[in-house]
């Protein structure tokens, strides 16, 4: 059974995520540019985390616009609320809570590094379609389940070395999809895909510990949660050794593919 535990998050993880999420912020900036958000637009950020990207978008919409960020993790909304402005609001809520918004409420809805955490994707997309205005846009960034980037391989090999097998559940997030399944899922919702691209990105971290902290904080405590506790220290050490092999003069390189999708409500 695939499970994501929201209660694994802590205030410390939320704060660390706010400090370490530059790569996800960068993906979001690219998506926001492609969405073409305008002054006076009404925008919803689903899974806003600590609100860095939401705050950036509120500067684009300006005082005549309105931006709402929702996230199911109260500790992250607590940090996000410190960024609140006259046109920027934050609420605890997730993809299952979109019923709170009226039909045709938003010019734009987006999910940045969130789609792979949503179990009921088609239900969520139908609700997004409902709350979008005519010709409104949806943007999302997510990973490709089938990508074999160096860090993913290091983590999978470390698990296999210590456990002797690979867990059936996805290592990073249980509801990840392949790029083709992402496309098919969106098309079934009735939204029209206007852009679908996959970018190969590289970011650099100072240490292996920092990378593991990013994975733990960005997964709100769920990283390696399917691993029996007694094996985690050994697996963690194996992962650190592997990560050090990726060190360059700039730091440890984190290569990965990012799927960016822009959709329009017909």
From TrEMBL:
Methyltransferase type domain span = 44-138
**Record has Glycoprotein as a keyword:** no
Ordered alphabetically, the record's keywords are:
Ubiquinone
Keyword flag Nuclease: no
Domain of life according to the entry: Bacteria
GO function terms (MF aspect): S-adenosylmethionine-dependent methyltransferase activity
UniProt cross-references to PANTHER family, sorted A to Z: TRANS-ACONITATE 2-METHYLTRANSFERASE-RELATED
State what protein this is by name.
Ubiquinone biosynthesis protein
Q: From which lineage does this chain's organism come?
A: Bacteria, Pseudomonadati, Verrucomicrobiota, Methylacidiphilae, Methylacidiphilales
């Amino acid at each position: 059974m695939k499970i994501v535990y929201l209660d694994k998050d802590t205030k410390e993880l939320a704060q660390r995520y706010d400090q370490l999420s530059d790569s996800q912020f960068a993906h979001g900036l690219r998506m926001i540019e492609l969405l073409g958000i305008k002054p006076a637009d009404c925008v919803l950020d689903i899974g806003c985390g600590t609100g860095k990207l939401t705050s950036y978008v509120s500067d684009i919409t300006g005082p005549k616009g309105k931006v709402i960020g929702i996230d199911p993790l109260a500790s992250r909304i607590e940090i996000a609320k410190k960024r609140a402005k006259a046109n920027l609001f934050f609420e605890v809520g997730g993809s299952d809570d979109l019923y709170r918004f009226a039909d045709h409420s938003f010019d734009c809805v987006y999910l940045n590094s969130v789609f792979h955490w949503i179990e009921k994707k088609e239900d969520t997309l139908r609700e997004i379609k409902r709350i979008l205005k005519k010709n409104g846009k949806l943007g999302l960034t997510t990973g490709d389940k089938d990508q074999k980037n160096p860090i993913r391989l290091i983590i999978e090999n470390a698990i296999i070395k210590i456990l002797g097998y690979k867990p059936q559940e996805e290592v990073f997030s249980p509801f990840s999809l392949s790029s083709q399944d992402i496309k098919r899922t969106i098309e079934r919702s009735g939204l029209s895909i206007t852009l679908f691209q996959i970018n190969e990105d590289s970011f650099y971290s100072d240490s292996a510990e920092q990378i593991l902290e990013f994975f733990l904080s960005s997964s709100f405590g769920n990283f390696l949660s399917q691993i029996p506790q007694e094996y985690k220290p050994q697996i963690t050490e194996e992962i650190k050794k592997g990560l050090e092999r990726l060190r360059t003069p700039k730091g440890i390189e984190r290569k990965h593919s990012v799927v960016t999708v822009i959709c329009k409500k017909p």
